[in-house]
Specification:
about 90 residues, alpha+beta, about 15% helix, elongated, DUF7848 domain-containing protein, DUF7848
Length: about 90
């Protein structure tokens, strides 16, 4: 004789938001070079991440001085997010 198994499910709303809590990781900025090398591969040079958005911009100008043809960049922003159980009412 088999005994039926009962399960109870609880549905929960979740909210995703930027993490502004005091212990949250910092928002960081970086730039990476998108220019193509002679062999058609992406340069992929990248600045160090920084909490100050102007530091990676300074890196981009220095990289351009070293590589005059490298004029295309992508900004890489890392913003911490957090999930909270229980969505807005």
């Amino acid at each position: 004789m088999t005994v039926p198994i009962r399960r109870t499910f609880r549905f929960v709303d979740w909210t995703l938001r930027p993490d502004h809590d005091p212990d949250a990781p910092p928002l960081t900025y970086a730039f990476r070079c998108l220019a193509l090398n002679a062999d058609n591969t992406e340069c992929a040079a990248r600045s160090s991440p920084s909490n100050d958005p102007t530091e990676p911009q300074t890196w981009a100008f220095a990289h351009l001085r070293e590589h005059p043809g490298h004029t295309s960049y992508a900004e890489v922003i890392e913003r911490p997010w957090v999930m909270w159980e229980g969505g807005p009412a």
